[in-house]
Design goal:
5% of the residues lie in helices and 53% in strands. It starts with a helix and ends with a strand. A hairpin with a 7-residue loop joins strand 23 and strand 24 (365-367). The protein has one domain: Pectate Lyase C-like (3 Solenoid). It is globular and about 55 Å long. Residues 1-12 have low confidence and may be disordered. The protein has 376 residues and is mainly beta.
């Protein structure tokens, strides 16, 4: 490992520790109204290249950000439009919605549009100089970040949000997380392409970390529509994940018109892994370890609808394509699941009201009250 690697690794350690040698924020907005930010380029932007807290009627357009930590953070804001932005952030999130107690009270981040944006995790600086270097070196101890995320701070919740026409390249996938008591509801994600995704392409998590004032109750995560998605070369250890809590299901999730291609390589031993709940753990794709399903893992959920979706792999994978555990209402229509010989396509545990229709390789089937069943 050369001197360049060593220097970069040491700089990253400084950033994580919040070294006084590094700027904390390039641009910070607090309790503002009617702000337009346009045609700005930021390199090495500090802990936040842009942090907007309690800002209403904010437009962020045509920004190019190539930074060491978060790109654009939108916290406790209303009526925000982010468009035509390119955010390269190898060590942290690209565009991140939060709802903290920074205003002294819980306030939802709501009425948000994110459109026509690119997220990536190339080496810092190589997006703007056009070299697009990828140094995913195990000795370096990181995978690229990037992505669009809701959370982790989620006291006030997230409502009425649309994300469309975005590109993810060499970074993480979507993470929609509420773990501090705030509602996460009414979100539409559509027209997304992803390549070289290093963990779950889609990660929905309802948890009970409850970081904030005492007395907060477990939130709800509901009414999420995700459609028109292409994912190529997704990480072999991470399926798409929808994970609620016992007694607190994620509700009303609709996945449609999706094509997801995983690297494959999962083993029979991995297919029977028991996944712990991790109710209070920091929410993050990978928090459950290697997924026992290669395509989609759903636990503690209600009203899950999946239509016109293909799950495929590039190398043989001996894990089932889909696992549903403690789910009330599963509706599969025109779903294609690639299988390795003698593997299982779908595993059902503690399911009420399961339907599969018009899906290649499966007879139309309607089941109720399933304790354990496998479909091959």
């Amino acid at each position: 490992m050369g001197a360049g690697w060593i220097n970069r690794k040491n700089r990253y350690k400084d950033w994580v520790k919040g070294s006084e040698q590094n700027a904390n924020k390039a641009i910070s907005l607090y309790r503002c109204r009617n702000v337009i930010m346009r045609d700005v380029t930021i390199i090495h932007g500090g802990w936040f290249a842009i942090l907007a807290t309690g800002v209403d009627n904010l437009t962020v357009d045509n920004l190019k950000i190539d930074t060491n930590r978060d790109g654009i953070d939108i916290d406790c804001c209303r009526s925000v439009h982010v468009s035509n932005c390119s955010v390269n952030s190898p060590f942290d999130d690209g565009i991140c919605l939060k709802s903290t107690f920074a205003l002294g009270y819980a306030r939802a981040t709501e009425n948000i549009t994110i459109a026509n944006c690119q997220l990536s995790g190339y080496d810092e600086g190589t997006f703007l100089d056009g070299t697009y270097k990828r140094s995913n070196n195990p000795e370096y101890g990181y995978h690229p970040n990037g992505r669009i995320k809701f959370g982790t701070e989620s006291n006030g919740g997230f409502k009425n949000i649309t994300i469309t026409n975005c590109v993810f390249d060499y970074c993480r996938g979507f993470a929609l997380e509420t773990v501090d008591g705030g509602l996460l509801e009414d979100v539409t994600i559509t027209n997304i392409t992803m390549r070289d995704i290093v963990n779950d392409p889609i990660f929905l998590r309802l948890g009970s970390r409850m970081r904030g004032p005492e007395g907060m109750q477990v939130a709800k995560l509901r009414r999420i529509s995700i459609s028109n998605i292409i994912v190529y070369n997704a990480d072999q250890s991470s399926a798409c994940t929808i994970a609620g809590l016992p007694g607190y299901p994620i509700e009303g999730i609709h996945l449609s018109n999706m094509r997801i291609y995983y690297r494959g390589g999962g083993t029979k031993e991995q297919s029977v892994r028991q996944i712990t709940e991790n109710e209070n753990k920091y929410p993050e794709p990978g928090m459950f370890g290697v997924s026992p399903a290669y395509g989609l893992f759903v636990r503690h959920a209600k009203d899950i609808s999946i239509s016109d979706v293909e799950f495929k792999f590039m190398e043989p994978d001996y894990r089932p394509g889909l696992i549903f555990d403690d789910v009330d209402g599963v509706d599969l229509r025109n779903v294609a699941i690639q299988q390795t010989e003698n593997s299982r396509a779908i595993v059902l545990k503690n399911i009420n009201n399961f339907n599969i229709l018009q899906s290649e390789g499966f007879e139309d089937l309607k089941l109720k009250n399933i304790e354990q069943r496998e479909l091959k």
